[in-house]
Amino acid sequence: MSTTAGVSAGEIAARSILMMADGERSDFDELVHPRAVNQEGKVEPPECRVGGPEGFYATARWLRTAFEGLAYEIHHVVADGNLVAVNTTMSGRHVAPFVVYTPDGAVDTAFPPTGKTFAVTQSHWFRIEDDKVVEHWANRDDLGQAQQLGWVPPTPAYLFRMARAKSQAKRAM
Asked: What is the pLDDT of residues 115-126, one digit of tens each?
């Protein structure tokens, strides 16, 4: 399906994945609708939950901070009207605490940096309207990522580091 600007919904969805790794704020303004909702935001920092370009860009900054060299390889893009599925591999190196949150915005878990690299498959789903992303949700291999980064099974020393990182993240809020 082509949009009015001649860019397909699939191209818009693929660009929106790639910009998570290195896009500027202006890229998010161009591709993300002001009403856009990230259905994955419920475990992200509070600033990521606002939706629209601001929230999506906050998600990108959150990921880029924790994972140096963040990159996405796109394998498949399938579109049916304004609904698009994008199969990717996300990769990077864990260099800063990765903090996940409860639905009410409290710190849930903090994973201190391991310096390890990872590459995991993900499927992202988008709804496109007016040549922009209006909704996003995903299925990710979180267990595979956790295993590659040494988060599971956790060693006693890593559990201690997690507790300390969670305490530091709570103080930083």
From this structure: 999 999 999 999
